[in-house]
Amino acid sequence: MEGPYVTTVTSFVLLSLFNILRFPLVVLPKALRCASESIASARKIETFMARRVVNKQNTTGTPGVHFKNAVFSHHSNDAFKLRIPEFSVKPGELVAVVGRVGAGKTSLFEAILGNMIQNEGEAQVGGQVAYVPQNPWCQNLTIKESILFGKPLEERRYKNVIHACALELDLEILQVRVVVVVVVFVECCFLPRHPLTPCDPPPQQQAGDQSMVGLRGINLSGGQRQRLNLARCAYFDGDLVLLDNALSAVDHHTAQHIFEHCVKGIFADKATILITHQVEFLPKCDRVAIMNDGDCLYFGKWNQEAAQILSRYLPASHMLAAAGNAEQPRDAKPKKQATSKEVKSAVNKAPVMKDRLTLTHAIWEFLNEARWTIFACSLFIFLSCQTSRQIGDYFIRYVV
Asked: Which of 99, 166, 234, 332 has the smallest CB count inside 10 Å?
């Protein structure tokens, strides 16, 4: 064959084919990984969906809780044991559960909900459960839909729940906010000095309990989210009410209002268990359970003995931290104050940064912070990439 084996036409066709194959070859490893993960996920979902459904709650039994010499353990942690010598709550009773951080208060609720393994003793739980978790949550629904949560609307009952959970002022604030936004929108649309046109979509025109909450709605504070969860629980009208630190994210007078009108009001005929750090509520409860390291140390009326036990296992520092909604870790050691010599040495070692740097100083600071090895590797990769591109152009221009 005369002439070069690779002609110009052939080289450009080869480059075009290589460019076409580049994207599938880059995506192929990712596609294989995604296929492997999807197969593993499908198998896990299939295994989960094929498991037999176990009814953990006895909704038709006698409402209340009764534990006698019960020992529980978690599914994933056999080392932790929840030991309850005696614990019971009946309809019309309010039981408070107190203890320091990590004492096993939430584990007690997990045992009541059937999420722990019963190893010993007697455990009886009955009635429909209404549960307020420690971390409040809300879906992308209106405030009204979040409270009703599929239940039919009863206007009188709904208003009582709003008042008991101290949500009236929040709904008024939301209504005023929406009215102001609508007025501003009308002025922007119809006054000639503004460039907006009336065809622009209006902002949220719903007011009060019709405001959207969640990821696509307004942002609620921690106290508002907690009261919203409490209102959902109150409207559900369950037989057994579990309140996991439901009054921790609200201020003192709001907590007093909720305790009097909701906990002692709407939940007056329910079997209610309240995990709390507010010691002022304990004398108003029927019985108190003191927890420490997974053990129920005391269960009975609030008296001088209970106060002594609580002061022994729940120091005043933990009470003050809990009242300020900032729970401290157990056995927290005070930080050692630095001496004047240590402060001076730290100041001398700290790099001095100027307010304004020239281009040369900025590059020098970048190289020092990025380390020379990383810079050299990055420079080598960059030069290799540019060299490979130039070699391809050189091959087409001079070789072909």
From this structure: 332
